[in-house]
Specification:
7-stranded mixed beta sheet, two-stranded antiparallel ribbon, 32% helix
């Protein structure tokens, strides 16, 4: 049976997929994408499985269905090690107990034997910072630094671009203007939904929680293209 257009694309598994910020970038890069998230995500723009991401990955490994994929992206919950949790929230006694899922995610990804990407925000999450990407690198209206561990493949890390100013909003009782919006929370001069969509490059959801948890698709489009270029070079060698 001949391959369809979708089947002819390399397939990516998007774990802890949320509303699909990462997924959209990989799709723009040329991947067919399947997601998995424990929450109901009706705005996710690609096929997805609702359930525990690690249980789903383990099942794919056991059944051999993981071999449908050429790359796995994982964005495990980051509250345990993110800068806000270990900084301001901890100093003020705010927040609750958060589970660190990075280590068990990596363990299963290594068992799967496929190239992978693990994404985390700045903070104390225990991942290798093989890549650090920032919205200014892609001329976006957010800074939103994110770190990426690359498993089973590598690519050169782009040079960080200096920021053009501050993030707009209130800080310690004072309002600051600037070229970037704050893609987190809902108070303190935070952007409107429309402003947040434009700044992140995400138009398919109007749910603030989904927007503030997402990474801009430009990040993973860059990563996806880098992976495909690396794969092509390896095949040609």
């Amino acid at each position: 049976m001949p391959l369809t257009r979708a089947d002819s694309k390399p397939r990516l598994l998007d774990l802890f997929s949320c509303a699909g910020g990462a997924a959209a970038g990989y799709a723009h890069a040329g991947f067919a994408v399947d997601g998995c998230d424990i929450a109901d995500r009706p705005n996710y723009p690609f096929p997805y499985h609702r359930g525990d991401a690690l249980e789903y990955l383990a099942d794919l490994i056991t059944t051999g269905d993981i071999n449908r994929y050429t790359l796995v992206h994982a964005s495990p919950p980051c509250q345990h090690g993110c800068a806000l949790t270990v900084g301001t929230n901890a100093s003020q006694g705010w927040g609750g107990t958060h589970v660190d899922l990075v280590a068990p995610t990596r363990e299963l990804l290594n068992k799967a034997g496929l190239p992978y990407v693990i994404e985390q925000p700045n903070g104390r999450a225990k991942i290798r910072k093989d890549l650090t990407l920032c919205g200014e690198m892609f001329h976006l209206g957010v800074i939103r630094h994110r770190n990426f561990e690359l498993g089973g493949w590598t690519t050169a890390c782009p040079v960080h671009v200096p920021h053009r100013g501050r993030v707009r909003g209130w800080r310690h009782g004072r309002f600051y203007d600037g070229p970037y919006v704050a893609a987190y929370g809902s108070g303190g001069g935070k952007p409107t939904i429309v402003e947040l969509q434009a700044a992140m490059g995400i138009t398919w959801t109007e749910v603030r929680e989904e927007l503030t948890e997402a990474i801009p698709p430009a990040y993973t489009e860059w990563i996806g293209r880098a992976h495909l270029a690396t794969h092509a070079l390896g095949a040609a060698a």
